[in-house]
Automatic annotation (TrEMBL):
It is an enzyme of class 3 (hydrolase). GO terms for molecular function: alpha-galactosidase activity; carbohydrate binding. Residues 288-462 form the Glycosyl-hydrolase 97 catalytic domain. Its EC number is 3.2.1.22. Residues 568-666 form the Glycosyl-hydrolase 97 C-terminal oligomerisation domain. PANTHER family: GLUCAN 1,4-ALPHA-GLUCOSIDASE SUSB (PTHR35803:SF1), GLUCAN 1,4-ALPHA-GLUCOSIDASE SUSB-RELATED (PTHR35803). It comes from Bacteroides caccae. The keyword Protein biosynthesis does not apply. Monomer. Its cofactor is Ca(2+). This is Alpha-glucosidase.
Length: 669
């Protein structure tokens, strides 16, 4: 063969190679984020993510392992790659932002292996991050037992991270700031900042009928997906055709960009409910904090909290203070045996809680009642009663439900495994049938399903206020960590607003009991009073609680903020902040704006431009600030309220004490 022919043959080979490895990369609409897929010589898929042409995540494995030997993670070749784009805006009945833009480029890579397993890897790249998911179709089998997920997140370089350790049972853990390389295990949202200054957060979107994904260090800056197993070690049981939740990485040049992103919601499906006019954000108080302080009890005894008399007092207070709803815990039989395998009866009120009279009274005063189903973890007991118990509530005009799972599930089943995920979803769907809205405590983590199921309004899923009542409490950094971690997943029912910070009025109460060994009797809230107020804005929840007992609000000038506060916001913006250090957020509700800023142990001053206000309008700014001598440790209750008229042209100096904060309501004049 002549040299010329050899060259032609070589070029042809090159050309053929190029044909057999089609283009497998996709960029964000603005071009600054790129995802690439490659398949190695074993047919295992790998992905890369780069930001501004610099690799963020490199050579990261994809796939699953199946217990009966079906190959879900290798032997693949690419059959076809298709591209798509979307740019739409959509609205929701409530949320941090009622209107959201969903703007992405998509790449779907169809792969097939020798077992004829068809796998579509779907990548969506937005200007604020990426999402990818697995869509499997496995012929000749009925079911699959997934024993491992192979997905890794291999960072090109080390960085700082903020997360809680992985746990199959609880998210009520303290956040750690540590190098990515030193993380052993983590739950998501796992927030990070690389040495290049890129902020990001790994999480998942649209988690249904699967177990949750946590992360485990496998070295070389690599975190591997770990799925919470069933008691027999199988991670997930699926039919031969399944789609995973989206594995997501939010990406932003600044930490607040993560908060301002709606990527998690964009990766969820549109609302499936026919009507949503029965779903509305509101403020509430509750017969609640007294129990955590040990001043009142859930069970019926001489200190019982949920009595008809107390209920009416709370309803009166709500009606007088522009608060729409009241929660009652400890209203039903079953609390006597707290701590064992609970057997609550969800339709049997205690004898001193006259539900008919309370409902009648609440109606007369225009107040909603928030019901409570504490399961103690006994899911079979709850599932037996759930439908009927929700019907019973709605028959009593109760349309808002707080659920609770404080206790282990039976038979070694986990809160965060596939069984748990399916249970929590069953509650959401059953509640929707009864037109009930939900606030879940000890929930499965939020993955944005509120877009599809907007009756799933808020949840706990992190250390909330309750921890201050009976433990060393939540440190000042906790509240400025949550917006950059837990709250990226969705709203949180933290229950802010305890005004009796040192429990002065309850500590020496003869009624107060220590109720566990963790309770050293010296518990307190670890913030200033102004920061408690700011948290009503910062810690977004469409059902927002004022947590304290009402006697601590009676006549308190600073409670005016909660009276004025509108939880039904239209738009939100995080203005400034760093994880665990500080944050400043503003929310617009109708014509008014509510601002909240908070700091960790360090005092801090921020210059806040009011250019978020509507130009040309005047606003009365009511400022709830730390007092001159305020300090979360030594002088937490020192606060001051001032008023001034402002416009969008002004800048305010926001001074915050150590462990302090500031809240401002801007009322349009
Ligand atoms: C834990 C929940 O977080 C809390 O709000 C509730 O009061 C108790 N469980 C009792 O249900
Ligand atoms: Ca809890």
């Amino acid at each position: 063969m002549k040299v010329k022919h050899l060259v032609v043959a070589f070029l042809c080979m090159l050309g053929c190679c190029a044909c057999s490895s089609p283009k497998t990369e996709v960029k964000s609409p603005d071009g600054h984020i790129k995802m690439t897929l490659t398949v190695d010589e074993n047919g295992t898929p790998f992905y890369n993510v780069s930001v501004n042409d610099s690799l963020l995540i490199e050579n990261s494995k994809m796939g699953f392992v199946e217990g009966n030997g079906v190959i879900l993670g290798g032997g693949f070749r690419i059959e076809k790659t298709t591209f798509d784009s979307k740019d739409e805006t959509w609205t929701q009945p409530w949320g941090e932002n009622k209107t959201n833009r969903n703007h992405y480029n998509e790449m779907a890579v169809n792969l097939i292996n020798e077992d004829q397993v068809q796998l579509t890897l779907r990548f969506r790249v937005f200007n604020d991050g990426v999402g990818f998911r697995y869509e499997y179709n496995v012929p000749n089998v009925d079911s699959l037992m997934i024993t491992d997920e192979l997905t890794t997140f291999h960072f090109r370089q080390d960085g700082t991270s903020w997360s809680i350790p992985a746990s199959a049972e609880t998210y009520e853990l303290l956040y750690k700031q540590q190098p990515i390389s030193e993380v052993e295990t983590a739950n998501t949202p796992f927030t990070f900042k690389t040495a290049d200054g890129v902020y990001g957060s790994i999480h998942e979107a649209a988690l249904y009928d699967f177990s949750e994904m946590t992360l485990k260090q496998i070295g070389d800056y690599t975190l591997k997906a770990e799925l919470t197993p069933w008691p027999d070690g199988i991670k997930v049981r699926k039919s031969n055709h399944f789609t995973t939740s989206w594995r997501t990485i939010q990406i932003a040049p600044e930490a607040v960009g993560l908060i301002n992103s709606s990527l998690i919601l964009n990766l969820n499906d549109p609302c499936v409910l026919e009507t949503t006019d029965w779903i509305r954000p509101l403020k509430y108080i509750g017969v609640w904090w007294g129990m955590h302080l040990g001043v009142e009890t859930w069970k019926m005894d001489e200190r019982h909290g949920a009595t008809t008399v107390n209920a009416k007092k709370y309803i009166d207070f709500a009606a007088a203070n522009n608060i729409e709803a009241v929660l009652f815990e400890g209203w039903n039989e079953g609390w006597e045996s707290w701590g064992g395998m609970q057997n609550f009866d969800f339709t049997k009120p205690y004898a001193d809680f006259d539900i008919d009279e309370i409902v009648r009274y609440a109606k007369e005063k225009g107040i909603e009642i928030i019901g409570h189903h504490e399961t103690g973890g006994n899911i079979p007991n709850y599932e037996r009663q759930m439908d009927h118990a929700m019907q019973w509530y709605t028959d009593h005009s109760i349309h808002i439900l707080k659920t609770g799972y404080a206790g282990a599930f039976p038979n070694g089943l986990s809160h965060h495994g596939q069984y748990g995920v399916n249970h929590y979803q069953k509650v959401v769907e059953t509640a929707a049938e009864h037109r009930m809205t939900l606030d879940a405590h000890e929930p499965i983590k939020d993955t944005g399903i509120r877009r599809t199921w907007p009756n799933m309004m808020t949840r706990e899923g992190a250390r909330g206020m309750e921890w201050n009542a009976w433990s060393e409490g939540n440190p000042p950094s906790h509240h400025v960590m949550l917006p950059f971690t837990r709250l990226l997943s969705g709203p949180m029912d933290y229950t802010p607003g305890t005004f009796d910070i040192l429990f002065q009025q309850t500590k020496d109460s003869p009624r107060r009991r220590k109720w566990n060994d963790q309770d050293k009797g010296n518990s307190r809230v670890n913030t200033t009073l102004a920061k408690q107020i700011a948290n009503w804005v910062i810690l977004y929840s469409p059902l927002q609680m004022a947590s304290d007992m009402i006697e601590h609000y009676e006549g308190h000038p600073a409670f005016r903020f909660f009276r004025d506060f509108d939880p039904d916001c239209d738009e939100s913006k995080a203005l400034a902040g760093e994880p665990g250090e500080f944050v400043a957020v503003v929310r617009k509700a109708k014509n008014n704006y509510f601002f909240g800023a908070a700091t960790n142990e360090a005092p801090r001053t921020l210059e806040i431009k009011l250019d978020f206000l509507k130009p040309g309008k005047q606003y009365k700014a009511v400022i709830y600030a730390d007092g001159e001598k305020a300090d979360w440790k030594t002088n937490p209750a020192d606060y001051q309220i001032t008023e001034q008229t402002v416009t969008a042209e002004n800048t305010l100096t926001v001074r915050m004490a150590a462990g302090g904060g500031q809240a401002i309501s801007f009322i349009q004049l």
